[in-house]
Write a structure and sequence with these properties.
By secondary structure, the protein is α+β, with helices and mostly antiparallel strands. It folds into two domains: about 80 residues, no CATH class; about 160 residues, no CATH class. It is about 35% helix and about 20% strand. It has six helices and nine strands; from the N terminus they run ααββαββββαβαββα. Helix 1 crosses helix 6 and helix 2 packs antiparallel against helix 6. The chain is rod-shaped. The two termini are about 65 Å apart.
């Protein structure tokens, strides 16, 4: 094999000289722009990798009308659960129930975790829809029953947090206890109940003779989207490949230059060799003319 066919070794000085030419500097600027775009896409994918449970960044602390947050006789979704709502209507005194084994969630006055009783009322809004309202907490059943007896049907405006209803199966009927706030069970006991919301509202203003039930804002649990992480890694790889491609093209230009020099040197060496001499003359003639014949 000829030496001109062999792949040249890497020449750092020559490569650097070629890389600094205007043509390859312009190519590098193009590569930098492409790599910056890929890096921005990778950053965007990483930002999308960590998502919260509230995908639309729902503000649960901004009060909205209950009729806008949810509809009766439909399941309470994750976007609706935990929102602060307002609803106006009248309580039906005879439909009030007392639930046992309930706690004041997150209370700041030392009652956190203390079990007691909830007073739960039946509110009918202006549209005739029914919703269960947790009106307050007491430490004893007697106090809860006294508070329930004081309730009247005067119009009122409820401000509180909307939570999904519980399952009736959570009640311990064998022990004579009723603790689940289950609208599906209450609808069978309420008198002339209209369309019923499947959630309930925890009232911010406790009823007379009760203490406030503290319903904290829902936690926005973070979840990692692995697919977006892989996409971000791919964009980083693409950015690195753009730089490698530029390096590889400059090196190809360097190798072509070396091969061209080798071919030029080989052609110069071949042209300087002596050519073949003149051939011998005819045999016996010595190259001279024959004498004339007499």
């Amino acid at each position: 094999m000829s030496t001109t066919d062999e792949r040249p070794e890497f020449d750092g000085r020559r490569w650097w000289r070629i890389a600094r030419t205007p043509r390859w500097i312009a190519a590098l600027l193009l590569v930098l722009a492409i790599a910056a775009t890929f890096a921005a896409l990778a950053q965007w994918q990483l930002g999308r990798a960590v998502v919260t449970a509230v995908t639309e960044k729902l503000d649960t602390e901004k009060p909205v009308a209950l009729a806008k947050a949810d509809r009766p006789q439909t399941a309470v979704t994750g976007d609706e659960a935990g929102r602060r709502v307002t609803v106006s209507g009248s309580l039906v005194p005879g439909d009030t129930v007392v639930l046992s084994d309930r706690v004041r969630v997150g209370a700041a006055d030392g009652a956190q975790g203390q079990t007691g009783f909830w007073v739960v009322g039946h509110l009918v809004d202006s549209s005739g829809d029914s919703v269960a309202v947790a009106l307050g907490w007491t430490a004893t059943r007697a106090a809860a029953e006294r508070a329930a007896a004081r309730l009247d049907d005067a119009p009122r405006s409820i401000h509180g947090r909307y939570l999904p209803g519980e399952a009736p199966s959570d009640d311990e009927f064998e022990k004579g206890q009723r603790s689940a706030l289950a609208p599906a069970a209450l609808i069978n006991e309420w008198a002339e109940a209209g369309p019923v919301y499947n959630g309930y509202v925890v009232d911010d203003e406790p009823a007379v003779g009760t203490r406030k039930i503290v319903a904290p804002a829902p936690q926005q649990d973070a979840a990692l989207n692995v697919l977006n992480i892989f996409y971000a890694i791919e964009w980083v790889i693409f950015a690195g490949f753009a730089f490698y491609l530029w390096y590889r093209l400059v090196r190809d230009a360097m190798e072509r230059e070396i091969l061209e020099e080798r071919e030029g040197a080989a052609a110069t060496a071949g042209g300087g060799a002596p050519g073949p001499g003149p051939g011998p003359g005819p045999a016996g003639g010595g190259g001279g003319a024959e004498p004339p014949v007499d």
